[in-house]
């Protein structure tokens, strides 16, 4: 498909879209039309150039745009080219932060959404939980128990508790509900800060309450009691909001940059690796 001046909007004060942006949009249509999935390769660059009658530089700029958006990964060398990929959660989180850059979002706003969505997500996931999921939930509860030995960082435990909710999200049959909860939980995980003077006893109180709710939710889920899981998760979300307020929790007043997020995720993954090897240090 070739592009000419008829592809560009006439008149108006807006600048016409760049040719590479138009090509990027057509490649998205191509992915949809061919029902390409993550891992599938796009046609070779030369084939795409011929298909859309554009120069090599325009095609590379279009592919780079799609790569920045997280939709493709471009590799070089023999067998290289553009491969369709699933947009990672981290990239989506960054885009959401950009959208919220000039908006004042409070932690109370985040928990208002959690209180509405988390009970429904957990309830919808119950029929799809396997023994492997139950084992993962048990492991998460054990490592986040504030009464466990050798607790080095209680606040890191509170962040790790978010993975309990991620396990339910992973099997939620509603992709939009799953995405909404994952984004909400990622905001809490990445952006929540607490008063540095908060007493250790208060941190343990928060952790004990969370651990108690998680144990009850897991027990109800094992019984496949959907309504009980929904009710417990609703109570859990309300209690968590009260605890966060009591601990003077708030959202950081600035964005978490890509480099910072990469370091945080690397640290979190390292902690999980140590735990799987039998280390006493909790995540």
TrEMBL record:
GO molecular function, one term: DNA binding
Region (Disordered): 255-283
InterPro entries per the UniProt record, alphabetical: GntR_C, TF_FadR/GntR_C, Tscrpt_reg_HTH_GntR, WH-like_DNA-bd_sf, WH_DNA-bd_sf
Tree of life domain: Bacteria
Matching SMART domains: FCD (SM00895), HTH_GNTR (SM00345)
Gene3D superfamilies (alphabetical): GntR ligand-binding domain-like, Winged helix-like DNA-binding domain superfamily/Winged helix DNA-binding domain
Feature: compositional bias, Basic residues: 265-283
Keywords: DNA-binding, Pyruvate, Transcription, Transcription regulation
Signal peptide: none
Domain HTH gntR-type positions: 17-87
CDD domains xrefs: WHTH_GntR
Record-given protein name: Pyruvate dehydrogenase complex repressor
Organism name: Achromobacter agilis
Gene: pdhR_4
């Amino acid at each position: 498909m070739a592009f000419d001046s008829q592809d560009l909007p006439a008149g108006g004060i807006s600048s016409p879209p760049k040719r590479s942006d138009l090509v990027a949009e057509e490649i998205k249509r191509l992915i949809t039309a061919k029902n390409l999935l993550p891992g599938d390769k796009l046609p070779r660059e030369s084939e795409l150039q011929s298909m859309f009658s554009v120069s090599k530089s325009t095609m590379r700029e279009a592919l780079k745009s799609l790569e920045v958006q997280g939709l493709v990964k471009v590799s070089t060398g023999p067998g290289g080219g553009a491969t369709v990929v699933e947009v990672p959660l981290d990239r989506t989180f960054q885009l959401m932060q950009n959208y919220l850059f000039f908006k004042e979002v409070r932690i109370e706003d985040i928990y208002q959404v959690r209180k509405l969505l988390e009970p429904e997500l957990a309830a919808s996931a119950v029929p799809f939980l396997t023994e492997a999921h139950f084992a993962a939930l048990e492991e998460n509860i054990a490592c986040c128990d504030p009464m466990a030995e050798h607790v080095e960082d209680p606040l890191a435990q509170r962040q790790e508790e978010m993975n309990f909710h991620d396990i339910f999200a992973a099997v939620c049959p509603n992709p939009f509900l799953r995405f909404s909860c994952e984004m909400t939980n990622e905001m809490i995980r990445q952006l929540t800060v607490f008063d540095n003077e908060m007493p250790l006893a208060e941190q343990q109180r928060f952790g004990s309450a969370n651990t108690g709710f998680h144990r009850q939710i897991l027990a109800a889920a094992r019984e496949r009691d959907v309504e009980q899981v929904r009710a417990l998760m609703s109570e859990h979300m309300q209690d968590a909001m009260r605890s966060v307020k009591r601990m003077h929790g708030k959202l950081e007043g600035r964005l978490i940059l890509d480099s910072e997020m990469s370091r945080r995720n690397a640290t979190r993954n390292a902690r999980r690796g140590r735990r799987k090897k039998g280390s006493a240090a909790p995540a």
